[in-house]
Automatic annotation (TrEMBL):
PANTHER family: TRNA THREONYLCARBAMOYLADENOSINE DEHYDRATASE (PTHR43267:SF1)
SUPFAM superfamilies attached to this UniProt entry: Activating enzymes of the ubiquitin-like proteins
One Pfam family named in its UniProt record: ThiF
Native organism: Candidatus Coproplasma avicola
Top-rank taxon, per record: Bacteria
THIF-type NAD/FAD binding fold domain ranges (all copies): 6-232
GO biological process entries: cyclic threonylcarbamoyladenosine biosynthetic process
GO molecular function, one term: tRNA threonylcarbamoyladenosine dehydratase
Protein name: tRNA threonylcarbamoyladenosine dehydratase
Length: 236
């Protein structure tokens, strides 16, 4: 399409561009990590997406989420994301699901149709379920560990979940994955110790669960690293 991906083709080759155009990637979670991952994949020429997120854009998202603008506050993240992808690549096929991914909603998704799954959700239960479903379907998946309360974007690593350390979320994941028989999971994680944050009442979500502190340059880097891994695994 008008040489939109010609610079990428110089690096990867025309065959890779065709492969990406014929690939479908499911992204679960469109926040600070998932939104930037989607952006990079769309700009790399991935031709089809399933986008899953129940949230609407809030003013508290403006400091770090690429989908969050004053003009998009209050709108569904999936709706804004689908529009953005199509504005980058009008030929892209986008299916949006404005729901939370849980064990109950999991049957709505046929993992066998995906070429890759991106896990950018927050809860351990959902992350474990995604890993298990992907394993059962024989689909590649990459999962992001904790990016909140951190300031060093250079501390991220890509490894297997069972080789991680320091990260509290990764520790919880290892325990749960063992229980369900997931023996391997590619993850992006940080060895940076989380900052100690005073979660005052003003910092808590409507649910009462403390919100982690975050910035523009840590979750975005995690998302871009994930996108790079997806591209490499799909075409290299």
């Amino acid at each position: 399409m008008d040489n939109a991906f010609s610079r990428t083709a110089l690096l990867l080759g025309e065959g890779a561009i065709q492969k990406l155009a014929s690939s479908r990637v499911a992204i679960f979670g469109l926040g600070g990590v998932g939104g930037y991952c989607l952006e990079a994949l769309a700009r790399s020429g991935v031709g089809a997406f399933d986008l899953v997120d129940a949230d609407r854009i809030d003013t508290t998202n403006l400091n770090r989420q690429i989908l969050a603008l004053r003009s998009t506050v209050g709108r569904l993240k999936t709706e804004v994301a689908a529009e953005r992808v199509r504005d980058i690549n009008p030929a892209a096929n986008v299916r949006a699901y404005s729901i939370f991914y849980t064990d109950e909603s999991a049957p709505l998704f046929d993992f066998s149709q995906y070429d890759y799954v991106v896990d950018a959700v927050d809860t351990v239960a959902a992350k474990v379920s995604l890993a298990l479903r992907a394993q059962e379907a024989g689909v590649k998946i990459i999962s992001c560990m904790g990016a909140g309360n951190k300031l060093d974007p250079t501390a991220f690593e890509v490894t297997d979940i069972y080789k991680t350390s320091v990260c509290p979320l990764a520790r919880a994941m290892r325990s749960q994955l063992k229980k369900v028989g997931v023996k391997s999971l590619k993850v992006v994680y940080s060895k940076e110790q989380p900052a100690q944050i005073d979660n005052s009442a003003a910092q808590k979500r409507v649910s009462g669960r403390p919100s982690p502190a975050s910035c523009a340059f840590v979750p975005s880097v995690a998302g871009l690293i994930m996108a790079g891994e997806v591209i490499k695994d799909l075409v290299l």
